[in-house]
Amino acid sequence: MTTTAPTGLGPTAPEGPAEKRAVVEAETRDALARPKRRRRSRWIPNTLAVVFSVIWIFPVYWMVNTAFKPRPEVMTTTPMFVPAHPTIQNFVVAITQSSFLTNLVNSAVVVVGAVVLSIALGLFASAALSRFQFRGRRLILVFVLVVQMLPSTALLIPLFLLFNTAGLLDSYGGLILAYVGSVLPFSIWVMRGFFIAIPLEVEEAAKLDGASTWQVLTKVLFPLVMPGIIATSVFAFIAAWNDYLVAYVFMKDQSHYTLPLWLASFSTPTTGTDFGGQMAASVLFSLPVVVFFMIIQRNLVTGMSAGAVKG
Amino acid sequence: MALSTTPPLTRKGPRPSTTGGRGPGGSGPRGRGPKGRGRRSLAPLWMLSPAGIVILAVTVAPIVYLVFTSFTDYGQRSLYTGAYDSVGLAQYIALVTDPAFWWSLIRTVLFTAAMVGGSILVGTGVSHLLTRLGGPLRTVVTVVLVFAWAMPNVASSEVWKWLFQPGYGVVNWLLTQTHLFGDMTNTSWANSPFLAYLEIWLLIVWQAVPFIALTLYAAETQVPTELKEAARLDGAGEWYVYRVITLTFLKPTLLLVTILSVIWDFNVFNQIWLISQGGPDDATSTLGVYSFTTAFVGFEIGKGAAISVVTTLLLLVITAFYIRNLVRSGEDL
Amino acid sequence: MRYTKIASVGALGLAAVIALSACSSGGTTAAASGGVQTVPTTKGDGKTLTVWVMTGDYTDKTIAAINKEFTAKTGAKVNVQTQQWANITTKISTALATSTPPDVLDLGNTQVASYAANGALLDLTPYKKDLAQGQTWLGGLEQPATIDKKLYALPGFAGARAVIYNKAMWAKAGITAAPTTFDELTADLDKVKAANTASDFSPFYMPGQFWYAGMQFVWDAGGQIATADGTKWSAGFGSAKAQQGLADFKDFQNTYSTAASQTLDTDAPQQEQIFADGKTSAILDNNWGLGLIQKANPNLATDDIGSFPMPGKSGSTQPTMLGGSDWGIAAKSKNTDLALEWAKIAGSPSIQAKWVYGTDGWIPNSTEGIKAADATVDSFQKGFFQAALNSKATPATGDWASLEGDKSINQLFSAVASGSKTPKEAAATFDSAANTALNAAN
After folding, report:
1. Beta bridge mates, C267
2. Which of A50, A146, C383, C397 could hold C307 in an S-S bridge, CB 3.0 to 4.6 Å?
3. 3-state class of C78 per DSSP?
4. C364 torsion bin: left (phi>0), alpha (psi -120 to 50), beta (else)
5. From start to end residue, where is composition biased (Gly residues) (chain B) (predicted)?
6. Which of B81, B84, B167 sits opposite C269 (nearest CB)?
7. Which residue of C has its CA nearest to B164?
């Protein structure tokens, strides 16, 4: 089968050059092709881009806007598009909630654990699946997809009962395992795509230089599958950072709760939904993910698409 | 492209295979059987086993358990007492004879089609738009996309509820200002089937477009410029160039994001649950919601398991073509 | 083939069996003397009892008072975990299934039946007399915790709904005294309506999905959600009386609330916010609604806000859905003796009087408690206490929770209020769903 990598970025050619190439191409095009017509036709895409950006950023803007409003300005029939009296009160309330720090620490522990473990396990497994010939490879591939197709809540009760028997409930280890298990199949699939793309000559050359299997893996191959590693870290990060239900059911003691449970506590029937507080909490909760995405955005796109298409 | 030549190379692996060029079906006996001598043949084993053990323990075992419970009457009482009966196929029979299940299936298929269609259409458009933008504006659009993409869906669902809040929601206000739909100030989106779908659809599309747009954009920048320029010199219109050249090159990526979207949107649960809880009158109760309410509200765990199994099988059927291709390509590798 | 792994019920097994054969009359009369036990006095030094409380129920101060008395008596420590309401049934159901469940749990009185009926809770029947401590528990709290004449949880506190109204607004419309009959109420609301002409103003804001309010009309007309004949439940909205009640609700809702509210629930937008914004002059609410109103609008003085029990067409006050909580003990608890002691203290007359009523403002768990409180209750609380005297509960079966959980009861009233279905059609839809759901176990 001739599957095509959408980006054409061999793992030997990291993202930067491709991006540059695109820019260069665009510039060349600009220079070569009918300068007049191009300038005029830019109006349409530019307008579309502005309209699209305004619509797409609006929910984010409204979340931030609400977060900085004092309560009387939140609940108005005619919405206020800028806070008249900006305040950080909502953030202060959100952060000073007794559980915030505990939950943050728990989330950090679980996220780091899930990311590190997923990468470590995924790397070796995907290397094995792409570089070695053995029985049942195809079965594993199909299995990866089947896992993706299960409804997200389907395994909650079976896993809960198994963890109960194994004594893994109410522990960081158990929660981390649950997250790793949920991202590992897909991660392996993505990383495998990158391993496959590495020309065999690369590792053969290393072998000729006397490198051991271990050295070939860690020194030569792993650096070349960086986009796949980054994609995996994102899956694991998101699985552990965003999950509400598994943490809610598995962690009995509140000192073990993670941040999504803190986020859920802003709306209760007896205190009403405090939209200002809730939006402030949403901002705080989203911030690390947005920053993370900003940093690895380009790698993520190539990681997922290139890896997966090569499947 | 260049990469299509890599499979024969990678096929050899550190333990050179004697059957390099063989096609499908031959992988079984060739395994790590007879010729396995020394550490090399053990390498895949130790590399695979840590991940394998984790996947076995927290994915395979629960799946086996799930399938097992779908043949029992496991319920709330069973949780406390550990007692349940084997009921054979009764859960499945009850399921296929329950109109609620079929309605839920129809809703899920239609809604998935609407969500995937919307996301792919907008995503493809935005991807193409990105190629036509100058540097600064392209950065702006990319940043906007990343914002929408990165928002955790727990947070974005809460933001959505606030945007569409009856009485105080800014979207209600904006729509009222347009004077197109009458006074919508107090419209409760979650309480009307159509509006509830619309609200959820907007949220899903809003969050799905960034991944699709950025992925397709990455692919679109790789379309050889020479081809397009040649076509243009031959007098081809922009639309023709896009349709014939760009889309052809985008096809594999487009197929991939479509399949992934189908798989993800078919099982969308969080957003629907947080916004409408499957209401009003079960109007937004897709299979994901249906299996959750069955297993976690009614605590009919056996029936919930049966729904999950059926859902997965349905998805397998829907994506069978793609998977077959994938497996075939896997054999070539 | 039957797979069973039923754990031993331990030391309590025998007592439970004896209590099973005893026929309690369902009131507060204790089980037959053979099965009566007192809560054993235990020393629990070095042990920790885990108690799950719901946010917004007992205040931290009240819990602290109970813990203090408990620790003084037993020497054991208490680990209090405050739970959020979102997805609470999932949380509790799974926690009770673990090998180390919380020992004592705060269970909503509409949910307690499902745990009790499925074997999640310890049978308290043998200790009933000792736990009651001479009081007569409120029916709305005890009945849902009683399955097949066995008691599975101890009443904790109650809350009833009454009308909260804006006294200043009503005074401006020329009304000085709270209404005591349904006709007076409607006459007053007509006056308020005439005095306030803003298009989004409603004299009495009552969202259509507000099934607790709707049920008050149905109960007042003599209707029932469902009645039990032995173990068979039959839903009752099709009856003539219930139909009358639904029609009364539609009438009242359509006349005095906004058209937009017909399909809404009380939480979005929050009815207390509507009240605080001056867009309505009255709502039906729990007593904690006052706090929410003042949080939304700090300028509304306590003196300007009053309460009265909702008068019914029948001549008496409308029966109100008694909300509240029971204290259940996990069947798998490893500290049942300590748990019993803690629950007994929580339900004791002194804690109820001084803390549950005195500090938290809840309605205490017994009729004696209500009577004792009556002398000191402030004018705002009085409306709620009066309303509680005529109270009802949801059907005492473990299967009720699913009907509440899937919101079919909300849809029933919303459909009637908005006119998308006639009362007859709406009742037929709900009744058939309810007949299936309530008899699921049979």
Report:
1. C270
2. C383
3. strand
4. beta
5. 20-31
6. B167
7. C268
Radius of gyration of the CA atoms of chain C, in A = 22
Residue A278 to residue A262: CA distance in whole angstroms: 10
Q: φ, ψ for residue A185 (rounded to 5)?
A: -55, -50
Query: What is the Cβ-side half-sphere exposure of residue C198, based on CA atoms within 13 angstroms?
Result: 9
Is the preceding peptide bond at C269 cis, omega within 30 degrees of 0? yes
Among B249, B320, B300, CA closest to B78: B300
The 10s digit of each residue's pLDDT in C110-153 is: 888 889 888 999 999 999 999 999 999 988 888 888 888 899 99
| SS3 of C7-53 | CCCHHHHHHHHHHHHCCCCCCCCCCCHHHCCCCCCCCCCCCEEEEEE
Count CB atoms within 10 A of the CB of residue A31.
9
Characterize C260-288 residue by residue with b for buried, 16 or more Cβ atoms within 10 angstroms of its Cβ, and e for exposed: bbbbbbbbbbbbbbbbbbebbbbbbbbbb
> Rounded to two decimals, what is the model's pTM?
0.81
Percent of chain B with pLDDT over 70: 85
Q: Which residues pair with C232 in a beta bridge?
A: C229
CB nearest to C296's CB, from A75, A164, A249: A75
Q: In the predicted model, is pLDDT for residue B309 greater than 90?
A: yes
Nearest to C319 by CA among C242, C188, C218: C218
The bridge status of strand C153-159 relative to strand C323-329 is antiparallel
Kindly state the DSSP code that residue C307 receives in the 8-state scheme. E
Contact residues on chain C for A249, CB-CB shorter than 8 A = 90-91, 94
Q: Is B278 on the interface with A (CB under 8 A)?
A: no
Is the confidence metric ipTM above 0.90 for this complex?
Answer: no
What's the pLDDT at C107?
A: 94
For residue A57, which phi and psi values (nearest 5 degrees)? -85, -15
CB atoms near residue C299 (< 10 Å): 8
**Can you tell me the distance from the alpha carbon of A239 to that of A223, in angstroms, rounded to the nearest whole number?**
24
Q: Does residue A264 sit at the C interface (CB-CB below 8 Å)?
A: yes
What are C271-317's pLDDT values in tens digits? 998 999 999 999 999 888 888 898 888 889 888 999 999 999 999 99
Query: Running DSSP on this structure, what letter comes out for residue C154?
Result: E
Rounded to the nearest 5°, which phi and psi values hold at A30? -55, -45
Mean pLDDT, residues C330-359 taken together? 93
The one-character DSSP state at C355 is: I
Task: Give me the domains of chain C, ranges plus CATH numbers.
Answer: 11-159+323-392 (3.40.190.10), 161-320+399-438 (3.40.190.10)
CA distance B101 to chain C (A): 15
How does DSSP assign B100-150, residue by residue? Answer: HHHHHHHHHHHHHHHHHHHHHHHHHHHHHHHHTS-HHHHHHHHHHHHHHHH
Nearest CA to B51 among A125, A174, A194? A125
**Burial environment of residue C255 by CB neighbours within 10 A (0 to 12, 13 to 18, 19 or more):** middle
The residue type of A287 is L
d(CA A179, CA A239): 6
Backbone angles phi, psi at B138, to 5 degrees: -65, -40
What is the SS3 assignment for C130? helix
Could you give the CA distance from residue C253 to residue C215 in angstroms, rounded to a whole number? Answer: 13
User: CB A242 to CB B154 under 8 A?
Assistant: yes
Interatomic CA distance for residues C258 and B64, integer angstroms: 53
Report d(CA C215, CA C320) in Å as an integer: 8
Mean pLDDT computed over every residue of chain B: 81
